[in-house]
Specification:
Helices cover 36% and strands 22% of the residues. With 509 residues, the chain is an alpha/beta fold. It folds into 3 domains: 3-18 and 135-285, Rossmann fold (3-Layer(aba) Sandwich), CATH 3.40.50; 24-118 and 292-373, no CATH class; 377-507, no CATH class. Helix 10 crosses helix 11 and helix 13 crosses helix 14 (432-446). It is globular, with a radius of gyration of 23 Å. Residues 389-494 form the GH3 C-terminal domain.
């Protein structure tokens, strides 16, 4: 009998039974108050007179009117550079012990985002909240005795001038609570291996010794890891070695494009739970079944604001205009795309995280990630966000019975005009012309702006099918395998030229 599992499940259910219904709007106002109060004597707080904002009649309005939007470059150049140099009390009290490295999907140069002790604790508390939410999914008691394989970046953080640097998943894993270490795999020794291929090889070697009940990580890297385990042990699917695997906690990117290829590695159904952990903090997680939306964590060190995702507010580099309207949680509408703005216990203030979201349930503060501001494809007026591109790929998978876990595209200028040039990561031998027609027809039917663009400057669609491994090698060349590394879905022409040259070298015998 799963005695320990029953105890854990019982504690979770009791905690859930005594939890009152939250009020996300009230929670957010209290979070903002705490952020301003705590940081009022920092250099940033004195510069923008946080004390005056706290005393205003409408604190949220005064906050929005006083402090400009910041993207990473501006915040780093004006404020975070001083923290990196060791100055205390710049945007948050004290010094930052950690800096999260994040090249994201935009280039080789790593961003250095401060991670304070308060943020470490906020991430830990968010993880606990997510564990308690598992009571909503009705897992059997013995699930809570199984091990959890977390595939992130290396926990071997680099020490530089008194600070520790690494990706946020590595920082989080290096700070896991002592009581969780019994369940945590691959364990501290393997997790510290910096070389991703060597780390995955060790995971494959040890896989038979573990009783994995849950997986956690970015979909593309989880799939590659599972494939290595299956190959190493000559399996038909992963459940032959981990029969008790019941949950996959996805994160970092939308799971939709990976769903078909991921399910193909399974021997039985697995519950997929989405999470939203960024370098800047733990933002949201899926708290209940019956939806793929995630609940914003509205009471835990992050204050959220929302800019309507409209072309007139988005600049060429993906940043937003300073005159863009900005809403708080009480003002948003369901079904509309917003640029996400955050202020945090790590000293990010009105910070453009680069993601766009839409609310599916305002009362519950539930959202879905709809894309990236940098990946908004509007070169010839098509106005395609990443979620619309993902929908088109899902349509291809279902209609043409394909698996397409990776893709990228560019509005590329050819001698006869602009085309949307797609590269699809798939092992199919299907005629690319047939795929291009299906893709074009779907987008014309599903998106009015695309249909108008096709009648004017956009000449059509070109499709190139390549092995998915080419995408992973591109990431390895430009950034690093594993961790928070994600493939850019939309490229500018200069980057796309580099990509196409890379593809040629990879597929040429």
């Amino acid at each position: 009998m799963a005695i320990l599992g029953n105890i854990i499940k019982g504690v979770i259910e009791v905690k859930d039974a005594f939890t009152t219904e939250p009020d996300p709007v009230a929670e957010q106002r209290e979070v903002l108050r705490e952020l301003l109060h705590t940081a009022r004597d920092t250099a940033f707080g004195q510069h923008y007179n946080f004390e005056k904002i706290l005393q205003s009649k409408d604190m949220t309005k005064a906050f929005a009117e006083t402090i400009p939007f910041y993207d990473y470059n501006t915040l780093y150049e004006r404020w975070w550079q001083r923290q990196l140099d060791g100055e205390p009390d710049i945007t948050w009290p004290g010094k930052s012990t950690y800096f999260a490295l994040s090249s994201g999907t935009t280039g080789k140069t790593s961003k250095r985002i401060p991670v304070t002790d308060n943020m470490i604790e906020a991430i830990r508390q968010a993880g606990i909240k997510q564990v308690f939410s598992l009571s909503n999914f009705e897992f059997p008691a013995d699930f809570f005795e199984k091990e959890i394989l977390m595939l992130g970046s290396s926990t071997d953080l680099q020490e530089k001038e008194g600070r520790l640097e690494g990706e946020i998943s590595g920082i989080s894993a290096s700070n896991i609570p002592f009581w969780f270490r019994k369940y945590y795999k691959p364990g501290e020794e393997i997790a510290a291996i910096d070389d991703w291929d060597k780390r995955v090889a060790r995971i494959a070697e040890k896989a038979a010794e573990w009783d994995i009940g849950a997986l956690s990580g970015i979909p593309s890297w989880i799939e590659l890891m599972l494939e290595k385990v299956i190959e190493k042990h000559k399996l038909n699917h992963i459940h032959e070695i981990w029969p008790n695997l019941q949950v996959y906690t996805s994160g970092g990117v939308a799971f939709g494009p990976y769903e078909k290829s991921f399910r193909a590695l399974m021997g039985k159904p697995v519950t997929v739970i989405d999470t939203y952990l960024a370098s800047e903090g733990f933002i949201a997680f899926q708290s209940r079944p019956g939806t793929n939306a995630m609940k914003l964590i509205t009471d835990n060190g992050i204050y959220f604001e929302f800019v309507p995702f409209e072309p007139e507010y988005i600049l060429q580099d993906g940043s937003i205009t300073q005159d863009a309207p900005c809403l708080d949680l009480s003002e948003v509408e369901e079904g509309k795309d917003y640029v996400l703005i955050i202020s945090t216990v790590s000293g990010a203030w009105r910070y453009l995280i680069g993601d766009t979201i839409a609310f599916t349930d305002r009362e519950r503060a539930e959202i879905i990630i709809t894309g990236r501001t940098k990946f908004f494809l509007n070169t010839v007026g098509s106005q395609l966000s990443v979620n619309k591109l993902d929908d088109a790929l899902k349509h291809l998978e279902e209609t043409l019975e394909l698996k397409i876990p990776e893709y990228t595209l560019c509005a590329k200028r050819y001698p006869d005009g602009f085309y949307h040039s797609w590269y699809l990561g798939t092992s199919t031998s299907m005629d690319p012309g047939r795929i291009a027609k299906e893709l074009d027809d779907y987008l014309k039917e599903a998106n009015k702006n695309y249909r108008v663009a096709r009648s004017k400057a956009l000449e059509g669609v070109k499709v190139h099918c390549i092995d998915p491994s080419v995408f992973y090698e591109w990431n390895a060349r430009n950034k690093k395998k594993g961790g928070q590394v994600k493939m850019e879905r939309v490229m500018g022409e200069e980057k796309f030229e580099d990509w196409e040259n890379f593809v040629k070298t990879e597929i040429t015998p």
